[in-house]
Known about the structure:
Mean pLDDT: 85
Order of helices and strands: EHHEEHEHHHHEHEHEHEHEEHHH
Structural class: alpha/beta
CATH class of the largest domain: Alpha Beta
Largest sheet: 6 strands, parallel
Shape: elongated
Radius of gyration: 29 Å
Number of helices: 14
Low-confidence stretches: 1-22, 437-450
CATH superfamily of the largest domain: Glutamyl-tRNA reductase, N-terminal domain
CATH topology of the largest domain: Beta Polymerase, domain 2
Helix content: 40-55%
Amino acid sequence: MSDFTPSEQRTTSAVMTMDDTTGPAVTLVGLNHRTAPVEVREKLSLAPELTARALTRLRDYASQGVILSTCNRTEVYTVADNPAASQDRLRRFLFDFHSLPLDGAASCLYYYSGQEAVRHLFLVAAGLDSLIVGEYQILGQVKSAFQSAQKSGGLGPSLSRLFRHALRVGRRARFETAIGRNPVSVSHAAVELARKTLGGLSRHQVLVISAGEMGKLTAQSLRGHGASRILIANRTYSRAAQLAARIAGNAILFSKVWEALPSCDVVISATGARGYVLDWTAVSSAMHQRGHRPMLLIDIAVPRDIDPKVAYIPGVTLYDIDDLHLVAEASLAERRGELGKVQAIVDQELDKFMQWWQAQGVVPTLISLQDLGEAVRQQELAEALSKLHHLPVEERTHVEALSRAIVRGLLHRPLVAVKSHPELLSAFQALFGLPSENGAGPAPPEGNET
Length: 450
């Protein structure tokens, strides 16, 4: 079993292939909450509405790919013959798409290929690589990334197989272990942080800026934690009104946020905006009207919704998504007993996937051996039949059937052996004088993943 724990800092420079040989391999470039602070992650994040355009642009750098972008990570997956060269192209894609120079942010990237890339994705899908260990949103985000790549037409059979397998890993982790018991999300962690900071929420007015998925989870968690006065603001007012009705809160127009701010003791913002929703001027004005009574701001958006400079305004306490580590550590303590069970599932499924992958690398050699056997059979049969021209047609047919049976019988055991033990492939090729495919794991024909 792996000894990896979610709190470890993993290497960002190792490059490994599926079986330490050259050849096609799953390749990954990315960054997450462990390797990059939020001010770096927000530069390379992808809003959902940009995903289709990004996948189209990715075709200039890789023949296929999947982009997984959440508040805590941005990762690009592909399958490539030359992992090192592919990783360089994926890195350039990330920075080119965002029109960013290859500055210090590049040092926050990690690079995995082969088995390590597969293992990383399985850990992500299982919730072990999340800021909140075991959080349940990540599996849906992996599924959405997979579906977006499918819709774009930029997904080959091997990568498709990989992501289907990753979803299986995530489902097993949730159904077969208690890692997801009393599920915790980033939104829940933000509310828990507010509750602990203020000693309770029942006496405070809370403003939630967002009616998207994060906003919904935040509002529901607030109600569950005793908040009784909840305002909901969203750029689309009807969505704010629907959410407010669901949690017995009140909806306000997005344009009225500045007016409502002075009356709010807590603000939790989680929009997908590319610029600040609350800037220094708005918060400073609100604090002046409040007489500088304390205000708690929690920004769980990536890119950030709240200008970090507001933290210097007297009376303001500002937390961003990276400050949720205190809640994350408490959550991990509660779930630590389940980590080994989930890691065991990851290891089991990793073995299964690698067996499938390596078997794909054996297929061309098996075909070559069958072709060789058929060529020898036809040559020897033709020579034999030239000397047995007196045989009736029926008996000549029997002789040909016999030759087929002999070749099939002789090749059966070697074919089964190399399929069961792909690590013998090189020796097998040398023994029979077959061409080397120079690597394992080529994609099966389009549409065939058996």
